[in-house]
């Protein structure tokens, strides 16, 4: 048993489940909706909601009775983003990469079975990609997600696939387990991932590569997100080595060797 499992506190698990009931598609929820999404009894959920409201983690609209995340969550998120972590180390490299291609550069990390985009430097072209930071996204769809998933051990991938259903999110979403395994093997071999319309049908494409620490553990991914119509073979041929070099540079900054010198 892992230490994290041995010392879990059930009431905290439930409180976290309540907070995670909210996402970009469910920003305002009723008590019964939260209880259902968090898999809690309504009375238990109500007690947790009251406590979280008292600490500013949740808000309740008096007219509708619906709940939403409180401003204290935003304050904590800003502290996390500015706490001298990976985002601070990566930002100068992200700016250089953005200047080189004038396309949006995104830094992503794994959070449980999801990917979270921590930071971005937005390109200045008239049509450009802008990413919603902090949103939980699946690890099986999209270049950055698949890079992070490729950092799992084979056993870790097996366990992940036993927990997660591969839903069709967009036209090019990979939903076949065998195909996803082959894709992860290719990403490990080549050191980068690319995707076109895997997470949504909004016309996005991108390239991403992994960031490694001194223990050779993948700690994040850096990628470039572009409108699909600009993702030509010519641009792709330039983006792949550019993104891989940026990932290698950030890896060296944080004490790793980077994938390119493995």
Q: Would you mind describing this structure in some detail?
A:
With 262 residues, the chain is α+β, with helices and mostly antiparallel strands. The protein folds into two domains: 3-76, Winged helix-like DNA-binding domain superfamily/Winged helix DNA-binding domain (Arc Repressor Mutant, subunit A); 82-261, Beta-Lactamase, CATH 3.30.450. 44% of the residues lie in helices and 18% in strands. The protein has helices spanning 3-6, 10-19, 31-38, 42-54, 71-81, 86-101, 143-150, 154-163, 177-190, 233-253, and strands at 58-60, 67-69, 104-111, 114-121, 136-138, 193-196, 204-212, 218-227. It has a six-stranded antiparallel β-sheet with strand order 5-4-3-8-7-6, sandwiched between helices. A hairpin with a 5-residue loop joins strand 7 and strand 8 (218-227). The two termini are 32 Å apart. The model has no long low-confidence stretch (mean pLDDT 86).
Structural class: alpha+beta
Helix content: 40-55%
* Low-confidence region ranges: none
Overall average pLDDT: 86
CATH topology of the largest domain: Beta-Lactamase
Order of helices and strands: HHHHEEHHEEEHHHEEEH
* Helical stretch tally: 10
Number of E strands? 8
What's the CATH architecture of the largest domain? Answer: 2-Layer Sandwich
Q: What's the Cα radius of gyration?
A: 20 Å
Beta content comes to 15-25%
At the first level of CATH, what is the class of the largest domain? Alpha Beta
Number of structural units classed as domains = 2
For the largest sheet, list the strands in their spatial order.
Answer: 5-4-3-8-7-6
Distance between the termini: 32 Å
CATH homolog superfamily of the largest domain: GAF domain
- Specify the overall morphology: globular
């Amino acid at each position: 048993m892992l230490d994290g499992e041995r010392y879990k506190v059930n009431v905290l698990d439930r409180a976290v489940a309540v907070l995670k009931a909210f996402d970009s598609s469910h920003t305002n929820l009723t008590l019964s909706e939260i209880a259902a999404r968090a898999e809690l009894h309504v009375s238990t959920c109500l007690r947790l909601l009251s406590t979280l409201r008292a600490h500013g983690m949740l808000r309740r609209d008096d007219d509708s009775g619906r709940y939403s995340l409180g401003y204290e969550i935003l304050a904590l998120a800003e502290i996390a983003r500015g706490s001298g972590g990976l985002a601070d180390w990566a930002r100068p490299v992200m700016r250089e990469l953005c200047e080189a291609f004038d396309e949006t550069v995104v830094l992503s990390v794994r959070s449980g079975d999801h990917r979270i985009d921590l930071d971005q430097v937005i390109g200045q072209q008239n049509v450009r990609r802008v990413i919603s930071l902090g949103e939980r996204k699946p690890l099986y769809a999209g270049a950055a997600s698949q890079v992070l998933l490729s950092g799992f051990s084979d056993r870790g991938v097996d366990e992940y696939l036993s927990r997660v259903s591969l839903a069709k999110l967009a036209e090019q979403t990979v939903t076949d387990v065998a195909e996803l395994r082959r894709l992860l093997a290719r990403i490990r071999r080549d050191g980068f991932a690319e995707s076109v319309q895997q997470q949504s049908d909004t016309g996005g494409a991108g390239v991403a590569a992994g960031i490694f620490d001194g223990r050779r553990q993948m700690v994040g991914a850096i990628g470039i997100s572009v409108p699909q119509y600009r993702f030509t073979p010519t641009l792709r041929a330039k983006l792949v080595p550019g993104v891989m070099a940026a990932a290698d540079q950030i890896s060296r900054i944080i004490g790793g060797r980077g994938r390119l010198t493995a």
